[in-house]
Each structure stands twice: as C-alpha cells, then as structure tokens.
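Q: My labmate handed me this sequence with no annotations at all. I'd like to see what the chain might look like in three dimensions before we decide whether it's worth expressing. Could you predict it?
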Amino acid sequence: MIAFEAAREADFERLLALRVQVMRPHLERIGRFQPERARARFREAFDPANMRLILVDGAFAGCVSLATAADHLTLGQFYLAPTHQGRGIGGEVLALLLAEADAAGLPVHLSVLKESPAARLYERHGFIRTGDDEWDVYYERSPADAPGLIVTDAPDEAARRVIDEGLAGHNREHAGYVDGRPLAVLVRGPAGGGTVGGMLGRTSLGLLFIDLVFLPKEMRGHSLGGRMLAAMEAEARRRGCRSGVLYTISFQAPGFYERHGWREFGRVPCDPPGTCRIFMSKALTAG
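A: Here is what I predict for the chain of 287 residues:
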C-alpha cells in the first residue's frame, strides 16, 4: 500500500542521500556530478511544506514534492530508492498525485534530465514535452477533463480536415465567404515530360501566398523564374488579390524577388548561424 507522509526539516540529510544515490549515475554520464552542487541544489529546492515521504507498506521508499503556483502545480524531487524501482511503484505514486491535480483542475509542470528514463513514465501518464534547455526537458500535463494535446510530425487526414473546416467556418462567419484555393505554376520537362519544378501557393481573402519554389539548376538564369512569378501574380489578380506575401531564406532568392517588385518587410534569424528568413510583399495592381 502506498501512502504519503509530510516531510520535516529533519529529513533533509536522508532525502539528500537518496537524491545522490538515484541521480549520481545520470549526472556522471553528462559530467555534471559534484557533491557540493548536489547539496546546494537540493537545499535550494527543499521545502518541507511541499515535500512528501513516500511509504510502501509503511516503510520509507522515496520522496516527491508537489508545489502549488497560481495556475499550475509543479512536480519535482521525485526519487525512489533503487530497491523500489522497477515494480510499478513510480506509476502508482504518479497516478495518486495526478488525481489530486485533476481534483484541483490544475495542470502539472515538471522537468527531467535529458535522456533520463523517467521521461517515459511521464509520457505514459499524459505529459507532453513543451521545451528544453542545455540539460533539461520540460513537460506539462493538463487535467483529465481538459482538452488534451498531442505533438506530432504526422497529423492524419481526419485531423487536417477538422482544422481546415473549422478555420473555414470561422472565416465564413466573420468575412461572409470562404475563397481559399490552391495555386500552382508547374514546369514540365521537354517533350511532354513530367513536372520538374514550379511554384506552389494559394489565394485567400485578397492575398496571394507563395509557399514553395523550385527550379533545377540547368533551368535557372533563363527568365523561367520570372515567367513563373508573373504567371502566379496574374492568376492572383484574376482571382481578386490585391497583395502578395512570401518568405525566402537569405541564401535563396531575395534579390530575385526584389527585381520583380517585391519588398522586404521583416526578417527573422534562423539556422545555420548568419542566416535569416526574409518576409516580402508586393502590391498586385491591376494591369
């Protein structure tokens, strides 16, 4: 049976020893274990008002803290003695703490050392990764009755449809119509070959968006890019667009767009170092 007991100041040394025992192998792996630092960091984080002893069948098994902030709970200092690891106890303790968070209607925040096996435990209990720094990964878990979040690089078609149709409905409510359409100018290979390059974009609510542009090296420098851009702009005008928007990367083609009347209105640094994304626009006057 798992139970909690309030920690006291007198428990500090025992809990520090547990933290060092649990964390030392992981910190040595990244060259960050120093006994003085371990003591200082635990001393800074140790608050008996938030710290609990974990008891299993009445015997000491570990510790955990759960601190209340204005709009969330922070879970930390979660350490189980090695003799109690690998038995499902960590999951049971976490489930009890999350039940408290759900009852309070508050999300739970925490951080784990990068490459820590504890991350898998938290992910199984609904925590999602929200960021990281040099050493730690940050997680958040919403209350059980709150909308859940999934981070993915492969949204399915049903998800795309929900978002696309929901946004279209919102736009229709406020603009009175929906006119978003794809727009592409494709370049075919010689003698009826397949597509070898082109421009991909879209038009919506009076704006042309140019998203992707590619031409093979052997086709560059022969005015083909200018012809593609002119065709894109002409079709956008025909659809009633008044302006166009795009971004390019500093090592791509900002000069090309400038020569065709596009003007920079902002830039954001990106990788590799020294590179930036350049945002450009152009008024599409009738003609």
